[in-house]
Amino acid sequence: MTGIGNEIWRAFAKVNLELRVLGQRSDGYHEIRTLLQTIALHDEIRVSPAKTFEFTATHGPGDDSNLVVRAVRAFEEATSIKVPVRMELIKRIPVGAGLGGGSADAATTLLGLDRRFGTRLPGERLFSILKALGSDVPFFSVGGRALGVGRGEKLFPLEDEADYWLVLVNPGLTIDTAEAYSWLTESVSFNNMLSFCARFVSPQRDDELALDTGPNDFETPLFRRFPELGEIKRKLLGSGARFASLTGSGATVFGQFSAQSDARKAISVLEWELDVSLTRPVKRSEYFREMFKN
Asked: What pTM value is reported for the model?
């Protein structure tokens, strides 16, 4: 058994650089194509020895409905180990904001317990547990930049692109994912695998093409219902962002900037009226190095 003392685990958020919804599947889920990227914004899970499992959270549910607790229970069921630790979840990733906070917490918890107790769950078994916790939870066992297909759980790691800065704008809205999906209309003809992949596969390594990420299909219905989201995107682009988009099913909108100085200038314009923060992409190597660094 390793790491039996106090530890801090970091659960990093993500943005969807692109998100296309192709339609509803026979199992009731939606077929998607998405380009995912981990970012420096993160929650902390503070772990310490205890006689029995204890859990508290600075924000959100503190009971079995929390994905951290669900991950602990899944680990106990898979390993027959009762987890004698106290976990304190320090939330910094806004809830219901399209940044994957709950999913990141769940994946980090499961990976952390596997590491702490030295159980070394087989990859297939680990993936099965992660997928059962949520469609986007498996991404947080990959990190960096990755293509997600199917429900988002089929993942293909990509070469990292991290030479830019991100301004996150959270309007304070909480949008239910299932409800957001219900607002989508039928996919249009260009929502197909070939056209999706062609957007970021660049044999000539054309940096402009590689960074020209595409749309998020949730923008049209959400901007119609919440005009302030479209206004945020316009302000980011007007402040010098080379690209701006909704992430996930909302409600956070982010802008991509080439230089940190440009991003800070944009924040100075936006921060008086909105919840605005500066962050950056986290490469896969850094992601795993920092997750359990103490």
From this structure: 0.88
